[in-house]
Structure formats: C-alpha cells, structure tokens
Amino acid sequence: MEDHHTETVLKLLSAWQSLVSRESEAISQGKLDDLERLLQQASLIQQRLERDLTASGFPRHDRRVVEMTGKLHKQQEMNMQALREQTDELAREIGFLRKNTSSLQGYKQNKAQSPRFKSERM
User: Fold this and answer.
1) Do residues 6 and 58 touch, judged by C-beta distance below 8 A?
2) What's the rounded Cα separation, in Å, for the pair 55 and 67?
C-alpha cells in the first residue's frame, strides 16, 4: 500500500508542478484571470496532498517526494519574485500618475469671465 500511496503523492506533486509552470506563464503574460483559476486548482491539489501526507503509514522521507517539493518551492519563489517585481512596477507607475495629476491641478486656469453687457453706472 505504501508504494501505491507514494505514487499517488508523486502524481499529485507532478500535477501541482505543472500548474506552477502554467502560473509562471500567466504571470509573465499578465493574465490575472488565468492565474486566479490556476491558483484555485493548485489549492485543491494542496488540500488533497495535505490529507494524503498526514495519512498513517506514509514514508515521510521519501527521496522523490522531497526532491519534487524542493523543486516546487523554488518555482513558487520565482513566481512570487515575478509578482513582487510587477507589483513594484505598478506602484511606481501609480506614483508617477499621481504626481502628474497633482501637477496638472497646479496648471488649472480660472474660467474666462463672461463679458458684461450692462454698464454698472445705470
């Protein structure tokens, strides 16, 4: 049973790794809807893995499982770094736009007054 259980865990880890690779592509292409969908799928796999890994009788230090989780960890770190870089870029752009908006408010001119047709002396 342990061998079958290990293979199941390895298949789940492989599916998760595939999702993380697709997440990386979605991040680089700026497809946030796809990223959200992939993250939801990965969450389901993580829940199942958590349930399987806490099951009794699982060899906790299986070399293949440890290697795959290490690779997953590295890939997810790279994805997080890419998201941080994009977030920083957006923050800079928002700051630039905010600065431009406040500068434009300084250049506003008063409305031209309408001409008076009546003389005030009357």
Assistant:
1) yes
2) 20
- 15 found inside a domain: yes
**2-29 and 32-53 helices cross at what angle (nearest 10)?**
160
In a domain, 79, yes or no: yes
| Averaged pLDDT, groups of 10, the chain, 122 residues long | 71 93 92 92 92 68 85 94 92 87 64 67 60
pTM as predicted: 0.70
In the chain, the number of structural domains is 1
The 3 state secondary structure assigned to the chain is CHHHHHHHHHHHHHHHHHHHHHHHHHHHHCCHHHHHHHHHHHHHHHHHHHHHHCCCCCCCCCHHHHHHHHHHHHHHHHHHHHHHHHHHHHHHHHHHHHHHHHHHHHCCCCCCCCCCCCCCCC
Q: What is the extent of the structural domain holding 29?
A: 2-93
Q: How far is CA 95 from CA 3, 41, 85, 102, in A?
A: 55, 34, 15, 11
